[in-house]
Amino acid sequence: MGPISLSNRARIFVPFLAGAAVFGCAVAHAASGDSWTVAGGDDALSRHSTLADINKDNAAKLQMAWSMSTGAPRGHEGQPLVIGNMMYYVSGYPNYVYALDLSDPDN
User: Fold this and answer.
1) Distance between CA 90 and CA 68 in Å, rounded?
2) DSSP 4-36
3) Is the separation of the CB atoms in 27 and 37 below 8 Å?
4) CA angle 68, 73, 79 (to 5 degrees)
5) Model confidence over 25-57: pLDDT tens digits?
6) How far from chain centre, in Å, is Cα 2?
7) 71-83 per-residue burial string, b: 16 or more CB within 10 A, e: under 16
8) Is the entire prediction scored with pTM above 0.70?
9) Residue 107's pLDDT is what?
10) pLDDT score recorded for residue 32
C-alpha cells in the first residue's frame, strides 16, 4: 500500500484545522479576571465575571457611551470574546468578524 495522496484542497484544509485547534485550545485556557476568552466566560460556562466595577449600587446609573452597527438585518448569535485589550465578535449573516481595540476609548 502506497502513501495517501491528498488533493490540493485537503493539503490546505488539514493544516488549517490543526492550526485552528491549537489556537482554540490556547485561547480557551488563557482566561484571566478581565478577559472573556471563551463562550460562557470559562470552560464551565459559568457566565459570571469577577469584575466589581459595576454593582447593584451603580448599575442604574449606566448610560450608553458608544455603539456600532454591523448592518446585519438580524441578531448576532455568537458571544463576544475579550482577549487582552481586544474584543472580537461575529456579525449576523454574512458573518463578518470584527475586532475592537478596547484600550482606545476614542475609536
Assistant:
1) 13
2) PPPPHHHHHHHHHHHHHHHHHHHHHT---TT-B
3) yes
4) 60
5) 444 444 456 778 888 888 888 888 888 899 999
6) 42
7) eeeeeeeeeebbb
8) no
9) 59
10) 57
